[in-house]
Amino acid sequence: MLKATLANNLMKYRLRPISALGLDCSAIPENFNFLTAQEEFSKERSYVSEAKEYLSRTWAAMEEEDSGIQDIHDSEIVPECVMQAGRHELEIVFLGTGSSQPSKYRNVSGIYLHLFERGGILLDCGEGTYAQLKRRYGSDGADDILRNLKCIWISHIHADHHAGLPRLLSARKRLIVDKPLLVIGPKQLRGFLNAYEMVEELGMVFLDCSQTTIAAEAAAKPLEMDRCTMSGGDESLSNLPSEAVARSESDKLMQENGIHLQQGVDIAGRRILNCILRSMGLRNLRSVHVVHCHNAYGIVLESDPIPMDDGSLREGWKVVYSGDTRPCPALVDASKGATVLIHEATFDDSKPMEAIAKNHSITKEAIEVGMTAGVYRIILTHFSQRYPKIPVLSGSYTNKTCIAFDMMSVNIADLPLLPRLLPAFKMLFQDEMSLEDEDDQESYVPDSADSLLF
């Protein structure tokens, strides 16, 4: 009778020498026990428990009814839009926080602004963004996100900011056949998407970033209608059968769709955008020229005043995203009074020359932009992949600053808590920080994607 043996990982069957013929189970690992591993890890890294306790105390203090948000920073004025914010108002989800190319711990750029029942907006869409949505929300949840996605905004044409766009649009097209999605981006992106649509229809309407600047607003004001006339008053793209229908009126005035502002005002494209903003309770979406490559932009999003239970209105929030840029006055002006500034911090403070050469920002510069503009919170992102887990935490960090991680979700109601996470981050990643201080990883490959200026 044959004898059967259940195989295990690393089990061996030795044929030679004859004296060792048979099964060798010496290398089979013991069964993994989560509680045992957690206990051993806690003994070796006692500071992990300290970080856990610190975060628990901080969170509990914030939830105490008699403490109030204002007491978290006694010397700091908390904006009304944060003080009275509900948890279903705005959530910022970081799908990718690295630069150049995906790594084990950080995917490339992608930020989802979740407005809950009002839908969402995606800021940048590097490769793997669709997969990150699935990891964050699950397969069915990611499909729901795509169904409710109102707009995608792309900062510039570098691959780590737009290469995931066709995959995401294709997935959405399979879910929603007859509802085109608005894509806002630099003019080079239009050529890229048009070429891709020769292979596969993406179901999108394109609007050039230049059509969402202050200059475009001034030029379009006399031409735009005072009310949304699309879809019989339905302020969305839900009833648009195709891009051709969406742009039929503007085609009477011009031959091209998705044109740059230098060629004229894209009236139909701007009307579509305005209808989307109204349906989402947003006052404004404005693109700002920044210093990186040709046609690189940052973005400003402002919400309408929020109605209160007593019938009064309170101030809305303002979110600014820098894209990739050197510190520039235009972004400082656009960020004044912002609730949140999401700014790139590709390099640490010891590498100013690399930042200048590649038109990026160091940590200190990114924070100074926010401090000069008087923003409430600064969240740093787009870290060089030479910092795989955590960037260098220098003395330039302030009580307004936090760093972003992939899958990190920031609810507007939790903004007062953000800077208090830094001490916990330092404890959790102190080994990695020590290695970065000792070795600057000279074998690191330069950010090739960022060296291409189109």
UniProtKB/TrEMBL annotation:
Gene Ontology cellular component annotations, sorted alphabetically: mitochondrion
A single GO BP: mitochondrial tRNA 3'-end processing
Source species, domain of life: Eukaryota
Any one GO molecular-function label of the UniProt entry: 3'-tRNA processing endoribonuclease activity
CDD domains: RNaseZ_ELAC1_ELAC2-C-term-like_MBL-fold (cd07718)
EC number: 3.1.26.11
Matching InterPro entries: RibonucZ/Hydroxyglut_hydro (IPR036866), RNase_Z/BN (IPR013471), RNZ2-like (IPR047151)
Pfam name, any one: Anti-Pycsar_Apyc1
Cofactor: Zn(2+)
Presence of keyword Disulfide bond: no
Catalytic activity: Endonucleolytic cleavage of RNA, removing extra 3' nucleotides from tRNA precursor, generating 3' termini of tRNAs. A 3'-hydroxy group is left at the tRNA terminus and a 5'-phosphoryl group is left at the trailer molecule
Keywords from the UniProt entry: Endonuclease, Hydrolase, Metal-binding, Nuclease, tRNA processing, Zinc
Family per similarity comment: Belongs to the RNase Z family.
PANTHER family xrefs: ZINC PHOSPHODIESTERASE ELAC PROTEIN 2
Quaternary context: Homodimer.
Protein name per the record: ribonuclease Z
